[in-house]
Amino acid sequence: MAFKKINAALISVFNKNGIDNIVKLLHENEVKIYSTGGTQAHIEALGIPVHRVEDLTSYPSILDGRVKTLHPKVFGGILARREENHLSQLRKYEIPEIDLVMVDLYPFEETVKNTTDENTIIEKIDIGGIALIRAAAKNYNDVAIVPSQNEYDYFEEILKEQKANTTLEQRKHLALKAFATSSHYDTAIYAHFNKEGNETAFKVSMPHSKALRYGENPHQQANFHGDLDALFEKISGKELSFNNLVDVDAAVNLMSEFQNEGPSFGILKHTNVCGLATRDTVIDAWTDALAGDPVSAFGGILISNTEIDLQTAEQIDKLFYEVLIAPSFSEEAQSLLTKKSKRVLLKIKEFYTHKKSYKSILNGLVVQDTDLSIQQNTDLEKVTEAEASATQISDLLYANRIVKHLKSNTIVLVKNNQLLGMGCGQTSRVDACNQAIAKAKNFGFDVNGSVMASDAFFPFPDCVEIAHGVGIKAVIQPGGSIKDKLSIAYCNEHKIPMYFTGTRHFKH
Questions:
Q1: Looking at the DSSP assignment, which residues form a beta bridge with residue 43?
Q2: Where are the domains of the chain?
Q3: Residues 165 and 5: beta-carbon distance below 8 Å
Q4: pTM, whole model, 2 decimals?
Q5: Hey, which residues are catalytic here?
Q6: What is the CATH number of domain 3-193?
Q7: Cα-Cα end-to-end distance for the chain
Q8: Which CATH architecture has domain 377-500?
Q9: What is the dihedral of CA 474, 478, 484, 490, to 10 degrees?
Q10: pLDDT confidence of 341, banded at 50, 70, 90?
């Protein structure tokens, strides 16, 4: 294994936490250090000799610090191949070889999150740092690059074990990290300038990656790219699988609709809602959500918008489930629920929903706006002579939010803010309607007095005829069929209120 000694280093970092030991180790191994601005002052404060880049280039930092390292005496020393043709040019122009570049870029993404001031954001677009990263990574054959704070620990271990020597394999590994850093940084800048999503180019970068045990099935490999720690505190349980993650995503999207309601509890299976209720207490919400389909709830994903107390935990603990998500757990509830070590408990920090949705298809992918539309009373168009009561309107809107989270074709039955039955993923809306009624009756519900929601229009009056036959009292649907009048006429004849939303919630 061939080692290459680091004789000279250029250090210019925004985040200085974690560099002290690295700088001390470099000094102990007689590495000449060049630096600029705040990094230079930090190193000097450690009592370690440091050479100013301005003395090397004979130019000061200018334009409010926009230009510091952009100079041939810096980039020549980084980009030069260690062969006679290049080395002779370095000697001719008195350019030192630079064997290590250590950079941590301006925090562009954090700045975008914390301010809307465009001037502040623009000044956090790093130019010199990106150029240094790319130059050093390009010349990894001779130069080591530490491109971000994420690599400080790795590089410190190299210094401890190898005394300021690196291998080609290590330098190539760091170059890979460098290009990952620079491409992610540029993608974040592009996303800021392309807020409206009008450009045709698709760019996305997920810096965090984790290998999963397997994908949708054991013979499929899978990785998760994202930062779960930003959304959840994992309290206990096994590692989340591919299918767990898909279901958790569906659960969070569902509960984001109800996060500001009273205590609400949702149960999902294979991304579909099979139980949902909103009540005055979390125990009642859980009880009524479970009643919606206690069979499908087995092995499901559970989610609450309210803290789980001991009483609720004792009931939940009787059921086998995969994942339980809540904003918090009482100390007694958490103690009970963590006794079964394989079941996953997640404390959700934010009911986050992506504004864009992505799906790989054919030899590319489609990007669309996420369906974040929520209909209110003012969005409803009464198209029948009969008018729904205030309670029925509340149930209609509740049901309409649920259809967004079920595979199409779907029909949802609701009474008193409780999901009674649903039919989903059917090729016929009539089948979905019959399935919803059958499921509700199978679990002991009286659908008489309930309301019905559909994710898309009724091209024929058959579904409202079926609904009327079992006592369903009001209907909500998007409308838009050339045969809308047939359903409206049937509802008028039988005094059933029907409302159009004008918004379809189809989900493939």
A1: none
A2: 3-193, 230-348, 377-500
A3: yes
A4: 0.80
A5: 138, 270
A6: 3.40.50.1380
A7: 54
A8: 3-Layer(aba) Sandwich (3.40)
A9: -10
A10: confident
